[in-house]
Design a protein that fits this description.
Blueprint (H helix, E strand, L loop, with lengths): L2 H26 L24 H19 L24 H18 L6 H5 L2 H20 L4 H4 L1 H22 L6 E2 L8 H11 L3 H13 L2 H4 L12 H20 L1 H4 L2 H16 L15 H23 L1 E4 L2 E5 L6 E2 L8 E2 L2 E2 L6 H18 L15
Antiparallel strand pairs: 1-4, 2-3, 5-6
Keywords: Membrane, Transmembrane, Transmembrane helix
Protein name: Small-conductance mechanosensitive channel
Organism: Carboxylicivirga sediminis
Length: about 400
């Protein structure tokens, strides 16, 4: 396959993530979106169907099944992998960027958690040092546990590239959020002008995807976790089945815009599947590929990254506001978010409904395949085109 054709297929796949939900929404609104439909940031929740016990129970059963894969992998055909610890890891100190990141993260979180009002310029933009401070802290821990190997130490240019790709990778979700009637919104987003908030959103989102990669590398430093899912069921999909899954995934993204209250979750599940299949078809490695050899570790661990990262982000988000019970009364953080999710919007941990955390699992995989897609388009020799980019 020629390079130009590979680029074309990737661009079409990326365009589909934007166009198909828009097309579904176009039909949903009979060709005329409401006047404030694209207002960003969304400041208020849109009315949604209330709690539904049968739907909640069904989703909960699915989530329990997913949880069981991580807790009891042998139930799903995973065999125990013998771990031979023959490596002598050099003892190194925590690097200087760990301490710099810790200071940035701690100061930002302190200002937000104490709900300070001054200096306003710092508080309003504090998510930048908060997110990137966490990235540097995680990288420093990886550096120490591997004896001197980390993204900052070995391939800082790739970490920067992931950060740049993160801005478009996340803003796609902000765009898709319009077509599921704003599942999340920013009730204090009007602290900033809309133009400034848009710039702010681009900049702070640069720290979102790097968190996934840092957590993944940290997971690899724990041999039992890193090897827990390497010896599982081998699944090889035929081209016909891949095509079928791709068509269903694309159709579901269109349907999500058409039925936003019932298929809103599709916008988390389908993007990594669409990108993963298209990348596979043009001959580019993805974390899905090792499944053919029974190695599920790249997919399951990359999914786990944002279950952990998402939980910490939700905690930081919750601390940044003053609450009366579950009601947020005040915050100085313009990016403070809340959720408006149909049917299952109960049993919150922080602002997120408990079942909503499982949406972070496909997003973790999306982070990896999005970076692979961007690196392929730009002909970047990315190290993350294999399971263990640092040979930990």
């Amino acid at each position: 396959m020629t390079i130009s054709r590979k680029i074309l297929y990737l661009l079409l796949a990326m365009a589909a993530l934007l166009f198909l939900p828009w097309l579904g929404g176009y039909f949903f609104y009979n060709g005329e979106f409401p006047a404030d439909f694209y207002a960003y940031p969304p400041l208020k929740p849109i009315s949604k169907p209330g709690f539904n016990l049968p739907i909640f129970a069904f989703v909960a059963i699915v989530c329990l099944g997913i949880t069981a894969i991580y807790i009891m992998p042998k139930w799903f055909g995973f065999k125990k992998t013998i771990i031979e610890n023959t490596r002598n890891i050099p003892r190194v100190k925590l690097p200087i960027w760990f301490w710099f990141g810790l200071i940035c993260w701690a100061i930002s979180l302190t200002f937000l958690a104490l709900h300070l009002k001054q200096p306003a310029w710092f508080i309003h933009w504090s998510d930048v040092p908060l997110f990137w401070g966490a990235v540097l802290v995680l990288d420093g821990i990886v550096y120490k546990r591997t004896g001197g190997k980390s993204l900052v130490a070995i391939i800082p240019q790739e970490l920067i590239g992931i950060g740049i790709a993160s801005m478009t990778g996340w803003m796609i979700f902000e765009f898709m959020n319009f077509f599921v009637d704003d599942n999340w919104y920013y009730p204090w987003g009007n602290i900033l002008d809309r133009e400034e908030f848009l710039l702010y959103a681009f900049i702070i989102s640069s720290g979102l995807l790097p968190l996934a990669f840092e957590w993944y590398l940290l997971f690899l430093t724990f041999p039992k976790l890193a090897n827990r899912f390497r010896n599982g069921v081998k699944i090889v999909l035929s081209n016909g089945l891949k095509n079928g899954i791709l068509i269903i995934s694309l159709a579901s993204m269109f349907a999500a815009g058409l039925f936003p209250n019932y298929l809103f979750f599709v916008l988390w599940v389908s993007p990594p599947v669409v990108l993963g299949i298209v990348l596979n078809k043009i001959g580019i490695w993805t974390p899905f590929d090792p499944i053919a050899k029974g190695n599920w570790a790249p997919v399951l661990l990359s999914a786990l990254t944002y279950l952990v990262a998402g939980f910490t982000l939700e905690g930081q988000n919750y601390l940044s506001a003053i609450h009366d019970g579950q009601t947020a009364l005040f915050t100085n953080d313009p990016a403070y978010w809340q959720y408006s999710i149909p049917f299952v919007n109960v049993a919150h941990i922080f602002e997120m409904p408990v079942l909503g955390y499982f949406g972070y699992l496909p997003f973790g995989v999306y982070c990896w395949v999005w970076w692979i897609a961007c690196a392929t388009l730009l002909n970047i020799p990315a190290k993350f085109l294999k399971e263990n980019p640092l040979d930990i």
